[in-house]
Specification:
Distance between the termini: 88 Å
Structural class: alpha/beta
Number of helices: 12
Strand order of the largest sheet: 2-1-3-4-5-11
Shape: elongated
CATH topology of the largest domain: Rossmann fold
Number of domains: 3
Length: 351
């Protein structure tokens, strides 16, 4: 019969204090990096901490001091380079203010989002930055998070949540993208990618429709092609653009990942973006400028948006009773070669 080994007792501050010949308060000051401790004493305590294998329980320390040094960042698609840049910006700004970023990704799953938030809340973060999964319910999330933890929502609206919101100017961005293609002579312009149930997709479609309407163009139903906002899914759905003649000659894409997938799908069909089909993305991820051809896109500066999100949640921590506010980040067109397809390809339009 095997006997389980006895559980190892947790090393305490008192154990370290006895081993290094100092007070418990001095050990606590060393752990917090206080400049009040003499260098020789600090070295002796740090040696004893290592010898005994003491593990600093930051959560318990935060609870005792009634503060938290972490902020949770929950994003909906970590595989999208946009969110990698956004997360880097968040982490840069939080680190500059002494906070640690706790990162979770939901993969566009509402169920996974609930599990991730539940787990992160156990660490008692000072605040949460949340880019919601598609289909999220604001009231349910409000109940899950509770009223004590501040939340900043990014990009997708969450009705009934009553939290701070950092939005991209999706309508203006898509209108700029569509107007750019109209100026190049295109009239059969598709909106490619995304799902209509996503608020950001609806807003970008709204800007797309506004630009077409102002130009006297009525979009055909087949010009609106839905797909998951990923490169692989976009590449698979390229054929949907060419099921009826006359087919579109250009596309405004939901995001850069979709645009790059569209360009790959065109290449698989023997076509090339910028030569015989014009493509415009949305986001301006780092890869956009070095793709083949370089991608025309709506620049939102995702890393700067991450820093902005961090600054907004820190403002909320400093002023927890201020009314919830919405901030809209401006965007601009970044023209490159992918939208250079000649307008003469569109019948009835003179070059």
């Amino acid at each position: 019969m095997s006997i389980a080994p006895p559980a190892r007792r947790r090393i305490t501050l008192s154990d370290v204090a006895r081993g290094s010949g100092v007070s418990r308060a001095t050990v606590s000051l060393v752990l917090r990096g206080s400049p009040l401790v003499h260098g020789d004493t600090r070295a002796r305590v740090e040696t004893e901490l290592k010898r005994q294998g003491y593990v600093y329980h930051r959560g318990a320390a935060n609870l005792r001091r009634n503060v938290s040094t972490s902020v949770a960042l929950v994003i909906n698609d970590l595989s999208n380079p946009f969110f990698a840049e956004f997360a880097s910006g968040v982490d840069e700004a939080l680190a500059g203010s002494g906070y640690v970023t706790l990162l979770g990704s939901t993969g566009e799953s509402v169920e996974r989002q609930r599990a991730v938030l539940t787990s992160l809340l156990e660490h008692d973060p000072a605040g949460i930055i949340l880019s919601p999964a598609e289909g999220s319910d604001g009231a349910q999330l409000r109940t899950l998070v509770g009223a004590r933890t501040p939340v900043l929502v990014f990009n997708r609206e969450l009705p009934d949540a009553c939290w701070d919101f950092l939005a991209l100017d999706n309508v203006s961005g898509a209108k700029l993208a569509t107007g750019h293609l109209l100026q190049r002579g295109h009239r059969r312009i598709a909106f490619f990618g995304g799902h209509r149930d996503s608020s950001s997709c609806r807003q970008r479609r709204e800007g797309y429709r506004h630009a077409l309407t102002e130009a006297g163009v009525t979009p055909e139903p087949q010009w609106l092609v839905e797909c998951a906002p990923t490169r692989l899914e976009a590449a698979r759905q390229v054929g949907a653009l060419f099921v009826r003649d006359p087919a579109p000659t250009a596309a405004v894409c939901y995001n850069d990942a979709v645009a790059l997938g569209l360009m790959a799908g065109l290449a698989a069909r023997g076509r090339r973006a910028g030569d015989d089909f014009a493509v415009v993305g949305f986001d301006d991820i780092p890869e956009a400028s070095v793709s083949a051809p370089p991608l025309t896109t709506i620049a939102v500066d995702p890393r700067a948006r991450g820093r902005q999100a961090a600054e907004l949640i820190l403002q909320r921590l400093r002023d927890p009773d201020a009314p919830a506010r919405t901030t809209v980040a401006s965007v601009h067109l970044q023209p490159r070669a992918s939208s250079d397809a000649p307008r003469a390809l569109d019948p009835g339009v003179s070059p």
